[in-house]
Each structure stands twice: as C-alpha cells, then as structure tokens.
Specification:
With 178 residues, this protein is mostly helical. The chain folds into 2 domains: 53 residues, no CATH class; 110 residues, no CATH class. 71% of the residues lie in helices and 0% in strands. The chain is built from 6 helices and no strands. It is elongated and about 100 Å long. The chain starts with a helix and ends with a helix.
C-alpha cells in the first residue's frame, strides 16, 4: 500500500507549471520513487525471510517436545484402554482390537524412535504404511470418479464417498509424527 501512495503522489506532479515550463526534474522524481518502492517493498520482502531464519527467529527448528509428549500420552492411553477392554469383549471382536492395538503400538514406536524390526514397527515401516494408504486412497478416489463418469453412481453418492476419503487422508496427515 505504501508503494501505491508514493507512486500516486509522484505521478500527480504536473507535467508543466502554470508558466508553461516543464516541471523541473519530474522524470527523476518518478524514477527515484520507483527505485524506493523497489528497494523498500520488493527487496525487503525477498530478504526478510532468510534474515529471520538466519537470526533464529523462525520459531521451533526441531521437533516440538510438548507435542511429542502429548502424542505419546495419547497412544499409551489408547493402548491401555484397548488392552483392558479386549479381555472383556467377545472373541469375535478380537481382530478389531488387535488391529487397533498394532496401529497404536506402531505410532508409539515411531514417536520413541524404537527400531523394533521384529514387531514391524520401525519408523520406516510406519512411513511405508502411510504411503501405501495414500496410494490406496488415490486408487479409491479414481474408482469413485470412474463410477460416476459411467453413471453407475450419482453425484451425491460420489460426494459422500469423497468426503470419507478426505477424512481418512486428513486423519493420517495430522497424525504424522514430527
């Protein structure tokens, strides 16, 4: 906004004086105004972010310890609940509990950087699981679009299924450690 006001003031200088003579050094004033705008807005805007990073004012440089502790506490609480309630439920629901327990153990191992290869819960395994989940989501999204294009489902059904896919993607995007 500052540049617009300065430029408007410079351009508003008359071309000629009341006496009919050209305004002295009008072109120089316009040029200098452009230079000041360029330096104060463009150059300053381009150099400010690197300067902030160089001075260490950019915020947290590494992992947020408070967030990691909260994520760890959440995973531990979920594991404790699942393991406690698993024993009190019918055996037919055991696979559901096992899947959720495995998921939370993997998250906990990733947070603790536990290199437990035998449990399949290394950070690389969790990252691969997340990547595969994203690819599967993309395939599901393409399938929904294909079904709609072939008039096998209507737009309402397509939007409902896409919303479910969006929620699943958002869930795993937010839960990324670090």
């Amino acid at each position: 906004m500052r540049g617009v006001v300065a430029l408007a003031a410079a351009i508003s200088l008359p071309m000629v004086l009341n006496s009919g003579e050209p305004f002295p050094e009008r072109n120089v004033m316009l040029f200098l105004t452009f230079c000041v705008i360029l330096v104060t807005l463009v150059l300053q805007g381009l150099t400010l972010p690197p300067l902030i990073r160089m001075l260490g004012l950019a915020g947290l440089a590494g992992r947020n310890a408070e967030e990691d502790a909260a994520r760890r506490a959440m995973a531990e609480a979920a594991l404790a609940y699942l393991e406690q309630t698993r024993d009190d439920t019918p055996e037919e629901f055991a696979p559901i509990y096992d899947e959720l327990i495995t998921l939370h153990r993997r998250r906990l191992n990733v947070l603790e950087s536990n290199e437990s290869a035998e449990s399949g819960s290394r950070p690389e395994d969790y990252q691969r699981w997340r990547d595969l989940s994203r690819h599967v989501g993309a395939i599901q999204r393409a399938t929904v679009l294909h079904l709609r294009n072939e008039n096998k489902i209507n737009d309402e059904v397509m939007r409902k299924l896409e919303r479910e896919l969006d929620l699943t993607e958002a869930r795993y995007a937010v839960s990324e450690p670090g």
